[in-house]
Design a protein that fits this description.
This protein has two domains: 32 residues, no CATH class; 66 residues, no CATH class. The chain has seven helices and no strands. The chain has 120 residues and is mostly helical. Helix content is 57%, strand content 0%.
């Protein structure tokens, strides 16, 4: 809130989370759920899923006709060059378990709008 570089609209949106109306609409929980969905620990395993790798293989093959493209090679390329080292260790180390991918807070209800309603 005291950051002068933060845009005014962002400050207002953050204050809305703590307002009476924001509390009624469970806006803070909705923001948390939204942020939780985009955590790198959740996205990295999705990037390495068979469906994504198959689609990526198709796109790479289309851009490089006549060259063989293997899903396992794509997986290795993502693990070695695209996914951060700490995520690589969490994904490939069996002792790390599934801590990053386990849902830590259950979602009980649908996510409401994050934007404060405009009063006219």
């Amino acid at each position: 809130m005291l950051d002068s570089a933060q845009p005014e609209a962002e400050k207002v949106a953050n204050l809305y989370l703590l307002s009476k109306e924001g509390v009624k609409r469970d806006a803070l929980d909705a923001r948390w759920v939204h942020a939780e969905c985009y955590r790198p620990e959740r996205l990295a395993p999705l990037l390495l899923s068979d469906d994504v790798l198959t689609t990526l293989r198709r796109l790479v093959k289309r851009d490089n006709p006549g060259r063989p493209v293997d899903v396992d090679d794509l997986r290795e390329a993502l693990l070695r060059g695209v996914i951060r080292g700490d995520l690589y260790n969490a994904i490939t180390d069996p002792r790390a378990g599934r801590q990053g991918s386990a849902r830590s807070k259950p979602v009980k209800k649908p996510v409401p709008e994050l934007e404060p309603p405009v009063k006219t």
